[in-house]
Amino acid sequence: MGMRSHFCGQLTKANAEQTVTVCGWVNTRRDHGGVIFIDLRDKEGLVQVVFNPDAAKMFELAGSLRNEFCVKVIGRVSLRDAGLVNPKLATGEIEIVAQELEILNASVTPPFQLNEENLSETTRLTHRVLDLRRPQMQYNMKLRYKTAMAIRKFLDANDFIDIETPMLTKSTPEGARDYLVPSRVHDGQFFALPQSPQLFKQMLMVAGFDRYYQIVKCFRDEDLRADRQPEFTQVDIETSFMSESDIRSLFEGMIRGVFKEVLDIELANPFPVMSYADAMALYGSDKPDLRVPLQFTELTDVMKTVDFKVFNSAANLEDGRVVALRVPNGAELSRSEIDAYTQFVGIYGAKGLAYIKVNAIENGRDGLQSPIVKNIDDAALQTILERVKAQNGDIIFFGADRAKVVNDAIGALRIKIGHEKGHASNDWQPLWVVDFPMFEYDDEGKRWVACHHPFTAPKDGHEDHLSTNPGLCIAKAYDMVLNGWEIGGGSVRIHREEVQSKVFRALNINAEEAQEKFGFLLDALQYGAPPHGGIAFGLDRIVTMMAGAESIRDVIAFPKTQRAQCLLTQAPSPVDEKQLRELHIRLRNNPAQLAEVKRDES
Amino acid sequence: MGMRSHFCGQLTKANAEQTVTVCGWVNTRRDHGGVIFIDLRDKEGLVQVVFNPDAAKMFELAGSLRNEFCVKVIGRVSLRDAGLVNPKLATGEIEIVAQELEILNASVTPPFQLNEENLSETTRLTHRVLDLRRPQMQYNMKLRYKTAMAIRKFLDANDFIDIETPMLTKSTPEGARDYLVPSRVHDGQFFALPQSPQLFKQMLMVAGFDRYYQIVKCFRDEDLRADRQPEFTQVDIETSFMSESDIRSLFEGMIRGVFKEVLDIELANPFPVMSYADAMALYGSDKPDLRVPLQFTELTDVMKTVDFKVFNSAANLEDGRVVALRVPNGAELSRSEIDAYTQFVGIYGAKGLAYIKVNAIENGRDGLQSPIVKNIDDAALQTILERVKAQNGDIIFFGADRAKVVNDAIGALRIKIGHEKGHASNDWQPLWVVDFPMFEYDDEGKRWVACHHPFTAPKDGHEDHLSTNPGLCIAKAYDMVLNGWEIGGGSVRIHREEVQSKVFRALNINAEEAQEKFGFLLDALQYGAPPHGGIAFGLDRIVTMMAGAESIRDVIAFPKTQRAQCLLTQAPSPVDEKQLRELHIRLRNNPAQLAEVKRDES
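Output (structure tokens, whole complex):
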């Protein structure tokens, strides 16, 4: 225990009359009735310490204590009188009557009080050391540790071993942008920080390690969104000789076990499984939040012939879609609420938000309230009401546009209105989404691109589509979704070199390019590569959800801002010219070289 | 278990008559008596599989098997006849009589057989995936995992939590060279990969986490030696409210526990403790290999006045030293052996290797055999023989030069001759080296530099030396040494801002520079920083020793060469011009810009 005999936050009635030594920080100080009280804080919590004036020298020293002073106290644990028990404090039944006080380190006045709320993110990240002292941040970091350790224990018990893969790797400009590291030894060459250990873990399978995992930093130099960081932590797993369903079964067991162990929460057993096609049809999303039961109703077919341009033009687009979203009790929505939702779907590109309020379905058209219903013929209207199973009190929203806009806009509306209007359950809804397409067509690049990554195996029997119609090819890929967040994803990998080569061809990567970028993988696959597959979980995101935090920055000790800066240490920063010289690089926009740069850029 | 019911290497007599499914690689194949035998290999070991010709189709398929084919076999476990038991194989009492064979993946002929020895490092690293299939490499990676997991369990039980610190950090050009990462968002600015999480872990202590650890990649862009890698793994630990001896006691307990758990080896309890001064005096090294009991005998004082220039000139140098190394039975060494040792110490800068063979000490000078003894007067000779406690049969070697040369040369000789000539024990000799100096004087830079790092606390009572004579200042620093390797090192840190500022001044770092480089630390120390300290262990090195491996590259799955290259993936490699543009850098030695570069360099 070092300098202390007990942690502040762990003292109880059982310690009464013991002499204890505690160390920690002055959380608050009160002077009351000629006595000084402090709440002393350590990582386990708070305890009240009392300084009586009869020990004059110590009392004087206690008088100099201010918030965040670091002190050591020796004292006797004393039961509080019944009337003075503080039920809000774990240690509220006792207090420490101080006998000795040592100020280990004074503190200047902190820029904010630890219990202040609504601090700006800039303040919090600039003074991160103080921010991390707050109980919520202490809890979050411990929760993160417990989660990671529960994962390690599960994997250990299931015969997985942690094998470290390199951080200084080869740049393969596919997918996201790499962080690059100039080589000093090899002039003009660069390492890349790994976006994931994907190829290394596959090579470990080929090397016969059978069951690998790693909790590992990965890097993507992308423009940051609220839930992204330049460096993020992945629970990276790979296994040989297991089928897709074996893998899914094992890892939903892992997540169930972690939630049970860390939060005492029971997740569904088994997790429901939904195809990508169904998820898109019913929820417009490949990561539906199943806490909201509202679903899309497909109307594209019937709207092709309806005499209402907004609907029929969308329905007749090659990539068009028309759907309805029925919201029970939505007929109560006010005009201004509907306006707000209309504005909301606009964020996702929707040009409007048509609706029908079902006031009295038994009255036919007269029982409906809607700006658009006059444009819809009786037969189509009848089909709509039947398909959505309309009931009095409903509002039916419509999305009609390119499928992507409809899915994004009405999908987001589904979740928003579901949570706002009491249609969401307040529980945990895990889900497997499976049967993803192998490829999607990139209209700009005029080529097929991999939905998951180019090492994903096609479903049995789908190999032939690789050369004939890649769009029909379904992958052995799976995402684990929880409450609308993708928390993990993986696939069975290609283990035969000839299939891998076919996939590269489907992706329009020619043999030379494949060899240059992935030669080591193609080479490895030739030596009896085993059937293998795996999954990667986003640890930051899982812990954010478990902590109920608003941002992944609240579960990372020293995060970057959305401008990819560390406000605490001021990284990134300029470096010495000598360092650049050693790395054989120069700044492009070095003011001294401006003329030359301009010539170069023109 | 996925596709298999059992691992090959775990089948025993207890499985006799069971039908099992195993997956793995063909390790060897023999055709004998019309029957095909293969040894099938998985991560747990080998098992013999028998294919009988009566199942004609399967037998034909088995006939196509070659080494490293990946297969699945269903068969019946059968006891071998007593005469056919293979005691060398864990599964040698049984074999599997195959009923079904599936070739999961064929293999081309590997470039080497897995049991080949003396493969070149280039071959091994180029074909690392196959190299890793070898039982020794499988063992090494598992040993590494077990070691790391034993460390995690110990730390978990002792209330430490793993907290991740950033990989993209601020460059502080102190000590080793940083790996830099250009920022895309911030033109002209760079992140650095961490050389260690030193400042972050100290900030976690200031933030009140109390007990932190991390098993984490660190980076140094140094010219590589045999036991160094650009990226290496550190077991990084920090704790608050513990004294130097508390910390040492806890972590020698950890290492003892790990050796016991992983290798069933009992290390000394407690570890011996030696001051830096004693270590240098007796062994010429701050990491003495105590398996070799031979010690230096100090002669500098007596040699100042001896009439033998080689000795007295060294003894009278300001930084000179003269020592003897007595080696029992060394009088037997041949002329050519002595020549070889003379050449060996030359590597460390020694200009020769004087010696005296003690053949018959009772005969005075006549009983000594030596090229130098004629130059040494009787009194000095007498002192030498008494000090080293010379006995018949000894050889006494001498080192006389600048202290550094003597320490390096005679220190290395001590270890070499000790191990070669039977003076070394074959066990594990742990040791704490303590009481390091805070600073050493850099003759080139004409300034004091930190021996450990500038955040190390001085011994109690040594603070005053900081401004008066830094050379007298002893640090609360400690290294853990095992068999002559430094496997861990740490210190109690400075927790008061005013002491930290004094140390910066002693290091000739002015206030402005200190603020720019370490402002966030100085700032953090002002808010009631707790007393804290820690240690970092080199995981690669510990596992290398535990595995009895020759190189740390044998305990790293995908290491770099000594030229900092990955031969498997060919990293580092050239990158696209587009990538460089996005990062606001250009190549200095881009051929197209050669003229301009030349102008610039001149």
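Confidence is low (pLDDT under 50) at residues 596-602 of chain A.
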